[in-house]
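Lab meeting, action items carried over

1. Structure of the three-component assembly. Owner: GW. Status: complete.
Input record:
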Amino acid sequence: MIEKIRAYSFPALLVWLLFLVINSFFGFSMHPLVIKGTMVLLVVAFGYYVVNMKLFSYVTHRIIDAFLAFFAIATMTFLLLRLLPGGPFDQEKTLPPEIMANIAKKYNLDAPIYQQYFDYISGLFTLDLGESYKYIGRPITEMLIEVLPASVELGVFSLLLAFILGIPAGVLSAANHNKFLDRLLMFGSISGVALPSFVVAPFLILIFAFKLEWLPAALWDGPSYYILPVLALGSRPAATIARLTRASVLEVIASDYIRTAKAKGLSRLKVLFKHVLKNSLLPVLTISGPLVAGLLSGSFIVELIFAIPGMAKHFVQSVNNRDYPLIMGVTLLYSGLLILSNLIVDLLYSYFDPRIKLS
Amino acid sequence: MFKLITVALTSLLLSVSCTKKQKTEYGLDHKETLKINITTEPPTLDWSKSTDTTSALIQDNIMEGLVDYNFDDPDLSLKPSLAKEWSSTNKEQTWTFTLRKGVKWTDGVELTPQHVVDGWERLLSPATASEYAYFLYGIKNASKYNKGEIKDFKEVGVKINDKGQIVVELEGPQSYFPYLLTHHCTYPVRKDIIAKHGDRWTNPANIVTLGAYNLKTWEHDKAIVLERNENYYGEKAKTKNILAYMIKEASTAITLFETGKLDVQGNLPSAELKALKKKPEFKQNGILLLYYYGMNTTKPPLNNVNFRKAISHAINRDEITTMLDGGQKPMTSWVPPGMFGFEPEKGTKFNPSKAKEFLAKAGYNEENKPPKIELAYNTNEDHKRIAENVQAQLKKHLGVTVEIKNEEWKSYLGKLKSNTPHIYRMGWVADFPDPDNFLNLMTSYSDNNHTNWGNPQFDTLIKKAVSVDKKEERRELYSKAQKILTEQDVPVIPIYSGVSHLLINKRVQNYPMNVMGRRKFKEVVLK
Amino acid sequence: MTTIAPTLQADTAVASKSLWQDSMSRLKKNKAAMISLYFIIFLCFVSLFAKYIAPYSFETQNMDAILQGPSSKYWLGTDSLGRDLLSRLIYGARMSMAVAIFTAIISLVIGSVFGAISGWFGGWVDRIMMRIVDMLFSIPSLVLLILVKVIFDSLNLFENPELKALTSTLMALSLTSWVTLARVVRGQVLQAKEMLYVEAARSIGAGSAYTLWKHVIPNIIGPIVVLLTLQIPGNILFESFLAFLGLGLQPPFSSWGVLANEGWSLMRSYPHLIIWPSVAMALTLYAFSYLGDGLRDALDPKMRGRM
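Predicted assembly:
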């Protein structure tokens, strides 16, 4: 009984999450209790898994490691920023020195560098990331929270598209190794990465919004607005996943236990989906960590061209503006995402392949 | 599991195609809403602190200053706004402003002279750290107060007299002082509101204004909605709502314009003008902007005035404006057209044979070839095209090899401050329409003069011109100054004067277009 | 997966041939890979002799022929300064290929050395080196790119204007692309370390460097070559991204990234500006991808006989 619950709980959770995502795609607002309930459910499931598999010390180790990495990244970025030429308040019309002095005083930029560093790090402990230099008076934490929804939506949908297109394409391709379908799919997957996205995205707009007038050209206001950006952002990882899946499926097909399964007379499709796919998804899982972090933080080009109010633009514009607190904010958020998604991927890894021992 | 995903995906795609959501943007009626693009998120709507054009556009519509431009007058005189009348005594060293009666803020409080003085005090206070504080440095003791040398604002030359007039005493005569009061940094403020809400006082729920429009919605990085102020003291705005999107990418915005999602789009890519010009919706008007190249007069070979003259003589500005094809005026003099002081006949004009003469005078000829020089610009497609064209022209007309360097904006600014390249690109947009604003730029004590050039004679002329109140006399002084700058010493190469290009939907009438690039929408009518 | 028979046959028949010859004969049977190879050779030829092939110079401006479509005089049309697009595309191939190939080589050298040391010594050396790699992933790449560009622009290493225009782009790209290579090499070295021949070499007292050089490197060269062919198209794309961010080549030199960046926003009015650079870029990417796949199939012993 317990075994059964364990076996089905994971897929059930996935389906539930998928349901939520699709709902949000159509803009149905969820009761906050549902969202909170899901969060609690996720944390409980995570906690149960960690305790049950005796992974407690492993997870603590990873969290300590993460804190150290976090600290190192903050320090490095903080120092590198001060090496960049040009200051946050340099502009076309040069400011008189006395006004520069007032500004430096206000933002504590006249203090010695170690003092500034110390102030910043101690601020981190209270989740105070400071105020933006460019967007005067706006706290960084608030700015990040404001851009998060659009980024998460775009990222999750793109991720979904990448998996939904990529995995079946890879499996089909491998099943028809070196036949026409394989070649066609692989040609398609190279096409997915053949052009820079600043060429692909405007091309999509030109065709679907300008010539055909099927979809809106830009902005972020509902399902029809999501399609083009998701296509532009998701097609690249979809291509990568397809190629990866194909390669690992081919490898698994050649292994002994599949030959055994085939010899036992199991049907081709059943072998493919039941035995091959489960084992060949591990490499896909490995790249999912960076992929999730990358997609959730979005793409500067896609956001720019589709005028989406997400956070990817801050990665570029904050550096261009030398808005130190904002650069630090987005960097730390991104590295946090990366560390977290890598941890989750590693845990999932051991869930799928019990032979792997985490320690 | 896999089947489930497939089913979910197909149902998803199906329903997308049939349920196109009919969301009217922000619940606004299309017929009463002017949809514009302000390209970026305004950094702040706090008018004492903002320095950029996006913020200014919103602020100019929700607030007003003591005076405003009269754009019907080609010489750009001033007309009353919050101030009913004003006058100067003591040779333009003391100015007196009388406020209009019965102007109400959106919370019902009546405007008082104290609000104006509060605004100036806030602008000049070192704690505010406003970047435009220097706008009012002309006022007596203002710069000392801003530096923190004086703690009490009462010592600054701004008083309210018994008649309720604002009396301003300046450090010295300043003929253009009222023009400064058109700028948003000098608008009145409500200290009580700011004290109550802190940095959040500019949120739509907190902000208190008195202009023709109210700030209704501000969704960061997405859109701003302005709504007609029904209690506005003057004639009410003709269009009810302004919906301002923030779409940075021009080609996206043009597509939105063409699909009817935007009524107006400025910021057109210059390389596409040739095609866009053919549209009936295309409009253009000159603005007070000078595009120029500066030369580092201490870096050899540009330390030689003859070499600088040779360079300036060798650049055909007509070729550049023909290439840009956007109605820009080629310039050899310094003050742009659209204000007094414009003298197109001045300057070192294109003349290849003269250019070669000067090059020879500088000591270079076939045997002794001129050295390579560096031309820097900040990354931008237009700057790049112009730089590449100048590079080709100098090679062709003068045989000088130019090496182009593009830099990202802040690195570029850093470079101008620390180690100015041989030739650098810059632009200047008028803060107020007076030649002083342009010529002051090149004085030896100006922070914006990166050429390392200074001429005491030039400095004296500029200082003197400000204190003269007769227009003709001023014109003469500026004429002399321009001669020194563009014919005698030549530390700069003016290239062209700016034009702004717009696509305007036919349903929009009376869209504001003027040389200052100010966009006040209260006269706009939608058909 | 046809039958096992041909595999056996192939294995016994070519036993005498060297591994390299074996691989080459397998590569030759792969049509897509061979066509790609010829295309790449053609591209290299065009790049090397751009001066003699291009009808015009890449910088000659014609103010009377701005933004013209294709004509008999200008086969692919002209750009916004009246320069011949075909010539700029040909010279662009030169710059793009140079950037892509040199970057691949530089990042190969850095990545291999870094990865090999990390993998070979293991332990705390490995841990520290891999944490450095992790950090490089998180620090905003734009900050690094700007810093590298500023440093190399101010150094003035070369007199040749072409090389001068290239250096900072090249360095910026190399700095960010060696990381992946380092990871792969480390993984391969970790695997090779466990192999019998390495243990044998060590047991007879060979030094670390010697063993690495003589035994490990030759055995991991296959996957690295494959990765390299896959990295080159990635570099071409990344160069275009740099151009997009305004950190690309110094004008007036053209590369495909520069051309694509000049063209994309004018797609609506002047489609010729974006079509041809895109076609050139896409074809090259296909070629390198197919060649890379072909090489992997030819070199990877596990895939043997499954062609």
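2. GW to write a short summary for the group page. Key points so far: DSSP finds 15 helices and no strands in chain A. The mean pLDDT of chain A is 84.
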